[in-house]
Every structure is written in structure tokens, then in C-alpha cells.
Automatic annotation (TrEMBL):
<feature type="binding site">
    <location>
        <position position="290"/>
    </location>
    <ligand>
        <name>Mn(2+) 2</name>
    </ligand>
</feature>
<feature type="domain" description="Cytosol aminopeptidase">
    <location>
        <begin position="347"/>
        <end position="354"/>
    </location>
</feature>
<feature type="binding site">
    <location>
        <position position="272"/>
    </location>
    <ligand>
        <name>Mn(2+) 2</name>
    </ligand>
</feature>
<feature type="binding site">
    <location>
        <position position="272"/>
    </location>
    <ligand>
        <name>Mn(2+) 1</name>
    </ligand>
</feature>
<dbReference type="Pfam" id="PF00883">
    <property type="entry name" value="Peptidase_M17"/>
</dbReference>
<feature type="binding site">
    <location>
        <position position="351"/>
    </location>
    <ligand>
        <name>Mn(2+) 2</name>
    </ligand>
</feature>
<dbReference type="GO" id="GO:0070006">
    <property type="term" value="F:metalloaminopeptidase activity"/>
</dbReference>
<keyword id="KW-0479">Metal-binding</keyword>
<feature type="binding site">
    <location>
        <position position="349"/>
    </location>
    <ligand>
        <name>Mn(2+) 1</name>
    </ligand>
</feature>
<keyword id="KW-0031">Aminopeptidase</keyword>
<comment type="similarity">
    <text>Belongs to the peptidase M17 family.</text>
</comment>
<feature type="active site">
    <location>
        <position position="353"/>
    </location>
</feature>
<comment type="function">
    <text>Presumably involved in the processing and regular turnover of intracellular proteins. Catalyzes the removal of unsubstituted N-terminal amino acids from various peptides.</text>
</comment>
<feature type="binding site">
    <location>
        <position position="267"/>
    </location>
    <ligand>
        <name>Mn(2+) 2</name>
    </ligand>
</feature>
<dbReference type="InterPro" id="IPR008283">
    <property type="entry name" value="Peptidase_M17_N"/>
</dbReference>
<keyword id="KW-0378">Hydrolase</keyword>
<feature type="active site">
    <location>
        <position position="279"/>
    </location>
</feature>
Length: 502
């Protein structure tokens, strides 16, 4: 969708959206519009029980007294309660309400008394929300484009925001639109099927970040064998697709006193059949997005570099496909990780932690980061614990955990900290190797998975974010349509901006 910004005025025709505060509060131009329509706005709000609360919308068709085709009223609530997330949700509501109704529309942005945002900043946030919510992944729907089909309904393609200080609004939105581009890129990666996105092709996609100044290094199977990534290679050995590890480097603050980078590590299992410990058929198609953690890391590096963030950052993603075959890893196999620690593989469907183990060790051994954050669709158990509302957060550092929690709340990507401890660590003791890759089956599956990863981080401040329940939206949200959510890109971008830039 395209966005433009102009001085506030009432358009003579077309489609107009209007922000409405709590208790049906209209701004000066909103009241003028109500007068022009003979009070139609006030009557419609009263009849429809529309009060201007957040998340409310109301449509008036062909209102009398104007040449407008329709007016959309969008509730934003009380000024004192108005947040960026509420404004983004309003933008998402506009995108949904006007899509298939018109190709172009205007939005009159008038804020309630008590709002702390400037109209320009508010307009930018609304546009950002509309951009996020309007995302579609329909590139393979060829029937929608066949010439013999009926004329398709219009799709909202342009929104003009009518606001004071339109230049400031345009400048504020430019930064947010860059973040939206990174989110769109991430969603596309996760949405692609596994016959399109596999280790080699996903590694090639990361080269698109070079246009922003990211240095991209791709480690192929020969290199991985040479350096000793035995845990990752064990997962990959059943697939016809060779594994890859990609290192993305953004040196946005070369003059920093502390030049150590922040490191982001992502699980990139481009398809997870479970291997020899094969999953059930029902729902296995969803396992194309078991690379969601890697996509989030790639998207985060995109976002940081595209906005020229003043931070030194490393993104490392381990890319494999987990398949059963005559060459596949077997339950009972013992592999030697890059760290030198040996792992007894009890269940080949607990593969993500093997991939991350080698990538975490590589990150700290080669790049000496100030902190490490890994993201992975690691366990179904985290969904049992937290559903699809929060990601699970595990950390060996309280400040890091608190900062990630704060960043998540600001952008609407909440995390919930869960425990680690020696009692859980005992679950992965093995009589045959240094550890095993699953617990005894006594519960706490997501904690045991995190405890496994903790054995590969030493004393580096580290956080593990289990995004299994939030990487794919099962239903439409305010700014996230059903499908790939890109959960974590906004969280990590805000985390860097608030705590590690400058």
C-alpha cells in the first residue's frame, strides 16, 4: 500500500475515514463533516451503539449533504489512554474495513484531548499499522488472476492521511515503513513452501541484505564439517538438501568504545518431518515454518541495517532440513558438537536444539559478543504453557530478561520469563554421552529444551526465546493477518534501539 500525507481538509468526493474519540468525540473537521451531513454521523453512532472506543468501526454509505461515497468512523478511545499500539490497531482496522471497497481513501487524523502523541506522530503510527495489516501472501493464487474470472473487487492501494505538520508525519512514517519492509520480508520467508525455501535457497535470500551494507558469509557443508559442527550436521544428514550456516554482520557503530557485537541466533529448520522419530501426518504441512527463528534473525538484521542503526550486530542462522531416509540420524546416535561436548540423540524430532547448540558456540567462540539472543520454534510444550499470546523467555541474565520484556510490551510482542535450574538440567543427563537431547518425559519440555541450550553459552549473557506459539498466527490480529507473524523482529529492533544503540 502507498501512503501520502496532506494538510487536513474535507475532501469533496471519494472515501473518507475519520478518527473518533471516546464518547463519540469528533474533532473540529469531524464536527464540520457531521454538520454537512445534517447530523448523520451523530445519528449513525447513536443508532449503531458506536462510542469511539478503540477497535470500533462504523461505515456510512453515500452520506447526504456530500459527494462522498462512504465515511468510515474509527474509534481510538480516550486521549489519556492513547498508545502507539492503539493507533497501529486503528490503522489495521482501516486497512480491513476499506479493502475490497475502494482503491484509494483519505483519513482525517484528529486526536482527543489529553493525547501525548503529536498528530504527525499519530498519523505515522496509523499508517504503520495499516501497512502491517494489509500484508498478503497470494503469489501462488493464479486463479485470482485468470482473465476469464469476473472483475475482481478493488483492493485498497493508497491512503492519504490528512494531518497537521504533514512533513513531520511523512518523516516519521519513513522510519516505520522501513521496519514494515523488514517485517514483510520476514513474513514472505516464513510463508514460502519448503520446496521453495530450503537451506541453500534461504541462504541465498540473505544476500539481499548486502544492499544495506550487511556483510554476508555462507558456510557450506564442507566448511561445517571442517570446523566440527557435528550436532547440526547430524540433523541435516537425512535430507537431499545440504545444510548451510549464514553469518550476517552489521557494523553500524565502528567507533564504539565497546566494539563487541550483540548476537542473534536463529533456528532454521526449513522443513521438519521429525526425521526417524517422524511426526504424525495431521498438521505436518505447518512445519514449513519451523525456520521462523532464522527468518526473524534475518528480518532483524534487515531492519537494523536498513535504518542504519548505530550498533554492531551479528546474525547467525543454522539452516537444515530434517528428513527420514537411509542416511538419516537414528535415535541412539551420539554426535560431537562444535563445543566438543557429546550428545546422545534420543528423539530426532528434538533437532532444533542441536542446530542452535553449534551456532551458539560458534557465535561466542568467533565473535566474542556482549550478549546472545536465540529465537526458535523449539517446543510444542511452550504452547501448552503460554498458548499463542506470549513467547517463552529463558535467560541467564536478569537485566537482559527485563530489557527484552520491556521491549516486547512496547511493540505488542510480549514474552513471559520461565525458569531454569539444576533440577531441570538433570533431566538431560545421559549414561552414554555428556548429555541427551530430550528429558525423561516428565513434563517441562520447553524448560528442558532451554536447559540444553544453556550448556552451550558459558558465561555470556544469553536469552532464549521460544516462538513456537507465536511464529504463525492462527487468526487475524490487529496488525497481523492470519499466517506468518514475523514475531520478534519488532521486539529485537526496539530492544536494540532502547538499550544498545549509540
Amino acid at each position: 500500500m502507498k501512503f501520502s500525507f496532506a494538510k487536513p481538509s474535507l475532501p469533496a468526493s471519494g472515501v473518507l475515514a475519520v478518527t473518533v474519540a471516546a464518547d463519540r468525540g469528533l474533532g473540529p473537521l469531524g464536527r464540520e463533516l457531521d454538520q454537512k451531513t445534517g447530523g448523520a454521523l451523530a445519528r449513525a453512532m447513536a443508532a449503531g451503539r458506536f462510542t469511539g472506543k478503540k477497535d470500533e468501526t462504523l461505515t456510512l454509505l453515500a452520506p447526504a449533504g456530500t459527494e462522498l461515497d462512504r465515511i468510515l468512523l474509527v474509534g481510538i478511545g480516550k486521549g489519556a489512554d492513547l498508545t502507539d499500539l492503539i493507533l497501529q490497531a486503528a490503522g489495521g482496522a482501516i486497512a480491513v474495513a476499506l479493502d475490497k471497497a475502494t482503491e484509494e481513501a483519505a483519513l482525517l487524523v484528529e486526536l482527543p484531548e489529553g493525547a501525548t502523541q503529536s498528530p504527525a506522530a499519530a498519523a505515522a503510527e496509523i499508517a504503520f499499522g495499516a501497512q502491517l495489516r494489509s500484508y498478503k501472501f497470494d503469489k501462488y493464487r493464479t486463479n485470482d488472476r485468470k482473465a476469464d474470472k469476473k472483475e475482481p473487487k478493488p483492493s485498497l492501494r493508497k491512503l492519504t492521511l490528512l494531518v497537521e505538520e504533514e512533513g513531520a508525519a511523512k518523516a516519521a512514517f519513513k522510519k516505520l515503513d522501513t521496519l514494515a519492509d523488514a517485517i514483510r520480508f520476514t513474513r514472505d520467508l516464513v510463508s514460502e513452501p519448503a520446496n521453495v525455501i530450503y537451506p541453500e535457497s534461504l541462504a541465498e535470500k540473505t544476500k539481499e541484505l548486502e544492499q544495506f551494507g550487511v556483510e554476508v558469509e555462507i558456510l557450506d557443508q564442507k566448511k561445517l564439517k571442517k570446523i566440527g559442527m557435528g550436532a547440526l550436521l547430524g540433523v541435516a544428514q537425512g535430507s537431499a538438501f545440504e545444510p548451510r550456516v549464514v553469518v550476517m554482520r552489521w557494523n553500524g557503530n565502528p567507533d564504539a568504545d565497546d566494539k563487541r557485537p550483540v548476537a542473534f541466533i536463529g533456528k532454521g529448520v526449513t522443513f521438519d518431518s521429525g526425521g526417524i522419530s517422524i511426526k504424525g501426518a495431521a498438521g505436518m504441512e505447518d512445519m514449513k515454518w519451523d525456520m521462523g527463528g532464522s527468518a526473524t534473525v534475518i528480518g532483524t538484521m534487515y531492519a537494523l541495517a536498513a535504518r542504519k542503526a548505530k550498533v554492531n550486530a551479528i546474525g547467525i542462522v543454522g539452516l537444515v532440513e530434517n528428513m527420514p531416509s537411509g542416511t538419516a540420524q537414528r535415535p541412539g546416535d551420539i554426535v560431537t558438537s562444535l563445543s566438543g561436548q557429546t550428545i546422545e540423540v534420543i528423539n530426532t524430532d528434538a533437532e532444533g536444539r542441536l542446530v542452535l547448540a553449534d551456532c551458539l558456540w560458534y557465535a561466542q567462540d568467533v565473535y566474542k559478543p556482549k550478549l546472545m539472543i536465540d529465537l526458535a520454534t523449539l517446543t510444542g510444550a511452550v504452547i501448552v504453557a503460554l498458548g499463542h499470546e506470549h513467547a517463552g523467555l529463558f535467560a541467564n541474565d536478569d537485566d537482559l530478561a527485563m530489557n527484552l520484556t520491556a521491549a516486547g510490551l512496547k511493540v505488542g510482542q510480549p514474552v513471559w520469563r520461565m525458569p531454569l535450574g539444576d533440577a531441570y538440567d538433570k533431566e538431560i543427563e545421559s549414561p552414554a554421552a555428556d548429555m541427551k537431547n530430550t528429558g525423561s518425559g516428565g513434563g517441562a519440555g520447553s524448560i528442558v529444551g532451554a536447559q540444553f541450550l544453556k550448556r552451550f553459552v558459558n558465561d555470556v549473557p544469553w536469552a532464549h526465546i521460544d516462538i513456537a506459539g507465536v511464529a504463525w498466527a492462527k487468526k487475524d490480529g490487529a496488525t497481523v493477518p492470519k499466517g506468518a507473524s514475523a514475531f520478534g523482529v519488532r521486539l529485537l529492533d526496539r530492544f536494540v534501539a532502547d538499550f544498545h544503540e549509540g
